[in-house]
Amino acid sequence: MNELMRILLIEDDRVIAKLISLAIKTNGYQVDTSENGSIALNMISQQNYDLILLDLGLPDMDGIEIIEFVRQSSKVPIIVISARERESDKVLALDTGANDYVTKPFNVGEVLARIRVALRNSTNELELKNF
Ligand code: CA
């Protein structure tokens, strides 16, 4: 009943990816990582993830394109973690379909709390639907 939540982390900075994935695993989630957008899109079309953590500045595409792709078929929560801190970047990501936006440098504890919120909201929605 309480199977592990699966999180996809899309981040090309290996140090940051390692830091986040370690924190995620330590907190009892499963995590897959991708360093670029095209592999991430493949993973998304083959697996059901409970949440996506997304960097916007990827080597092969803009993270915004990933949000657009995912939103064509899925309501999976997307949390952007990006160095872009302009208001217009946040607005664009959120309007495209991201659920939340965290700027780098970030605090791991805050990211974990935001993950819990996003998962809580999406699980509530599922339970309401099944009620
Ligand atoms: Ca990046």
Give me a quick take on this structure:
The chain is of the alpha/beta class and 131 residues long.
Features:
18% strand; globular; five-stranded parallel β-sheet; single chain; 131 residues
Description:
This protein is of the alpha/beta class and 131 residues long. The protein has helices at 14-26, 37-46, 63-71, 87-96, 108-130, and strands spanning 6-10, 30-34, 51-54, 78-82, 100-103. Strands 2-1-3-4-5 form a five-stranded parallel sheet, sandwiched between helices. Strand 1, helix 1 (14-26) and strand 2 form a beta-alpha-beta unit. Helix 2 runs parallel beside helix 3 (63-71). The relative contact order is 0.16. Bound molecules: calcium ion (CA).
Secondary-structure blueprint:
Layout: E1 6-10, H1 14-26, E2 30-34, H2 37-46, E3 51-54, H3 63-71, E4 78-82, H4 87-96, E5 100-103, H5 108-130
Bound molecules: calcium ion (CA).
The site of calcium ion (CA) has 5 residues, from loops.
